[in-house]
Amino acid sequence: MSDIQLYLLEADKNAQEARRIAAQSASHLQNKTLKLIDLVTSLEPYLNNKEDGSLRAKSVAYVADVLTALPPKVLSLQERRLLCDFLLGRLEGDVEGVGATARALIALETLGKWDSETAQGVMRSFIDHTNPLRQFKLQTERHAIIQLVDMLLAKYRDPIRKLNEDQSDFTANFILYWEGEKDPRNLMIIFSLLQVPMTEWDISSNAQDLFDSVFNYFPITFKPPPDDPYGITAQDLKDRLRACIAANSDFAPYAFPQLLDKLDSTSMNTKRDVLVAIQACVTEYEAKTINLYSVTLWDALKFEVLNVQEEDLAEESLKALSMIGGKLAELPEGGPLNAYLRPIIKECNEHLEDAPTKQSEAAGRILQALAISGPAVADRIVKGILPVLFALYHASESITKRRGLLEVFTQIVGAFVKLSQLLPGTNITTLQAFAKDAEDAMIHALAKAPKSEVSFRLSSLTGLSQLVAAPGVLTDKQVERAVDTVTDVVLHDSSGGHGDIRAQAVQALASIAHNAPQAVRDRTIPAFMVMLPDSPDEGDVVTVTLEAFAQLATERQVFDTVVLRLKNKLRAAKHQGAPASYLRALLLAMLYAFTMGSPMQEDGVILSSYYKDYAQPLVNDFVRSDTGAAASELEIVGRICNIILRAQGVHMQATVFHEDREWMSEDMTGDSDSNTARGPFMLYYYASLRPEVVEAEQIVNMLQSQAKQALRDRQTTQESVTTLRLISLVVNKFVSPKAVQASLQEANIEVERLCNEASAAQAIHVAFAVVKGLLIQGKSGSLTTKYLNSLFDHLTITTGMTAAHLFATLLAPDDILTKANHCQISGLYKQKVFGQLVPKLTAAIRTADAGKKAHYLVALSGILKWQPYSILAASLPELIPALLQTLDLYADQSIKASALTVFESIAMHDPDALSTHAASLIARLLKCCIASPPRGTTTPASSSTTTPTNFPSVRAKSLQCLALLPKQLKLEIVVPFRRQVVKQLMGCLDDGKRVVRLKAVQCRTAWLSLEEEGGEED
Amino acid sequence: MEADKDNANPTIINPSDLPSRRRSAPTAKRPGIFDALAPAYPSLADPLSSPEASSDSASSSDEEREEIDEQEVYDLISTISDPEHPLSLGSLGVVKLDDILILPPTSPRSRISTVRVLITPTTSACSLTTVIGLGVKVRLVNALPPRFRVDVRIKEGTSRTADEVNKQLGDKERVAAAMENRSLVNVVNTMLATCE
Description:
The complex is a heterodimer.
Chain A: H1 3-11, H2 15-30, H3 36-47, H4 53-69, H5 77-93, H6 98-111, H7 116-129, H8 139-155, H9 157-166, H10 170-177, H11 184-200, H12 207-215, H13 234-245, H14 252-263, H15 268-284, H16 287-306, H17 311-329, H18 335-353, H19 358-372, H20 375-395, H21 399-422, H22 429-448, H23 454-469, H24 476-492, H25 502-515, H26 517-531, H27 539-551, H28 556-575, H29 580-596, E1 601-602, E2 605-606, H30 609-624, H31 631-645, H32 650-669, H33 673-677, H34 679-688, H35 696-711, H36 717-734, H37 740-746, H38 751-756, H39 761-777, H40 781-793, H41 801-811, H42 829-847, H43 850-865, H44 869-873, H45 876-886, H46 893-909, H47 918-928, H48 952-968, H49 971-974, H50 978-988, H51 994-1017
Antiparallel strand pairs in A: 1-2
Chain B: H1 21-24, H2 70-78, E1 95-103, E2 113-119, H3 129-143, E3 148-154, H4 162-170, H5 172-178, H6 182-192
Protein name (chain A): MMS19 nucleotide excision repair protein
Keywords (chain A): DNA damage, DNA repair, Nucleus, Repeat
Subcellular location (chain A): Nucleus
């Protein structure tokens, strides 16, 4: 059988095999065992078969497949031309196999470039003989033709364009050719190839037809089928269609009316597409074209802003309006821009007359958006709007109206601020002319308006800080006036209560400090200093002033000045013997500045010179000299040292530490009382040091002396907290993991020993502190496991309640043991505690007697309190019964609160786990949400004798938890409880505490709404 | 819907001008910004003296009772949505703090106090006044303890249908009957959906 016969046999059954046969023919052609003329002749009976169209089509497909498989240079130019003529000749009489024809032509073109005539001939043949394309039902056939045309337009631009110029009917037929195509794969190419005629051909006589041929597809509503292998999205189609719409200014007469017509659509998605298309047109069309439609566009687009349907539509419309302004500003003559802005300014001015309304707010947005588009536009807006705005302002007595007007003004200024960031050196002279008027108005509002006019004064505050932010609008004198006014509000607006805008004023002052640091340094800071005495009589007012002053440090430009003044004030206060509370407040202000403010940095690290300038003098004044500074002062000094020192490098830290070591070491070894007194400072100081700075020997010494103190029983709570935290820190950071046990034994605080000294409460505290340090470090795994077991065993003894409570401290967040303090933080320590202790605890709870059970329950809830929910989630079936029993521990509020938090998480994430326990959970929650439970329900589990009342936080929490149930649990589970819950919550509505009442209302609403849902079910 | 609103463009009160308890609290009682510098996590020795010490210190003031006052009633009803606009009754000025009055029990033997709320419709011809009144009434009856009698009325001279509406709102039977009407219940529920 000949190749063609074999091919025809396989063509329908096995495309791959068919292609292989064609490739075989191609290789025959290549090694000259087959002549082209023979191959064509062999086709004859099939190609001319009058009855069977599909046979003819398959024959052409064979040719296409052979040509595709053929390497270049096998066929001569003449042969290629012959084949080309042959294929095109067929089209005139027979369009069967048109897709294959197109493929064959593409293959021929790859074998050798065409001349102009051939390219034109191919194009004409298809447009003339296969028009319209939609007559071919198979997408693949059409796809091949589209690819051929795409190739022609890409590679033979000039010859094809000539067709448009020379042959009058060509373009019209070309446009008609694509009509009715629906397949997204084809459309993607058509939209792309049409851009060639749209942008490069002279299409003035066909503009409407060409435009309509693509706009018919607008808006695209295509939804890709699931698992679409082609991955074409609606957005891809939209993007290409939009590029067509915006391709040629000649489209404008058709594009804008039709787009605006579609803007009235009820579909938000259509409107979105329209707005983006309009933006594209404004960008792409010529400015003089846009000029013709600018007012029409304004008349339509404004409604989207004046009556906002969807916020994003309003924003897109504003963007379009702004782009029109920017485009028209490109024209050298000002007429078109004026023509566009005139109606806008007129309408906005009208809206300003009834300010404040939704419309006047919209006017402000419109004016701001336009002004941002360029200095020329901004200039005209200022000249058109501001005279009217201020005339209205002065003519009106109404404060709300004045506020509305000022807000619009501030929006225009905001545009100038943005403009001057984008284009530094923007001309602001027009705005300057109104600056005085505006500043007067706002200063008057802040200084003289009634304090209860909160929004008016707030608007003025924002306005002033915007005015200062627009560079060069205010003169230096005017900036100072603005700064003085805001400073005055911060310092003297002591009304309190409703109308207190000091917090906002402080923020405004900080932002002003960014733009006008000199004025703030010259005016504000001295004014604050006057208000801060060296030694005050009355503390309260001063604290408020100090808080405000410290917040100025959030602005880097004035940071140094603020801390320097604080330091001087502190020195003066100490010298004058000011009360301790004042010293403490000054120290706190300094700490706030360094923590929340913006100190200067070098390579991302706070400047080391701050230590010498600020921390060192504090250490000398408060820590070294025996002035008997209070523990709280020492702690703050320690924190200030910590925040500056901890990020510094080893070298800098070592230098500091070396200097301090001498006077500190006296303390460390000795048993003096100053040792204990300096504890709070030491804690933060050592927390900031890198481990390599401190030598091993010193560490053991320190551990020993700290341990000795911790085990003494004459410490105050505060002192022992500090000592214990220091022990945790040292164990975690400084003690080498290899020598842990040895170091602990040397310091007399080996955990197993401590646990055996059951009598001393101090011992068990130290044990927990050591284990906490080790646990978070995560480097001595087996030792930690052993120690955790010892702590667990301690729960079995009768005085185990102390230990039980301490379990909450193991995982509690700690601001000393952090990465920033160079501590070793294991990522898995919470999992470790959970995995090791929780199964043991839940097992013990099931079997223990009432007294011991309380210990286990308390320990369990302490561990769960700080666990991320994801860790708990796997063990819910064991945890829930235990947690329910925890809610019965009447005496213990914090334990109950943490159990309630866990229940809240469960109700949020895994409500189904609660379904079987609904009755017992609801009953217990109802008990927890009343202040004092009914008499006689005190559980014997609690050994404490305090009156069994629930604290407000517990009541609120349980109500919050209870409120989740009707939403989270299945209806049939909760509905039976509705009546009981709603009735009992009636009592909670009269709770003594407001927060609890609020939660009770929310909870009761949640349960009440159940009935309606349930009712609908019936 | 858009076109047949009784009042298409009502005046809206700026949120910062609405009365709120937080803003009217004396500055001295608010926590200062410095207090946040030191977080209050339980530390190792906190439960040293007694287990109770570890719980929040705020509970020490547990004995002080915070009475239900006008601001609290205002907070309960000002967040109700207007049936016409997506705005709260507070921001539309339909309910005002000054128009809420809590009357103590009339005789020493009675425990029943009265909460009187006067409603100001956005226009004098607002046809939804009754529904708004019903919403406020339902909200308060559900949210206040039973020792309060809830009295919702239209403020004098603000509505042409005031007498009629007051009669309806004052009548227990009529209110109960209204709440049997499913479509009315749905409207009221939508209004109350924005309440916290």
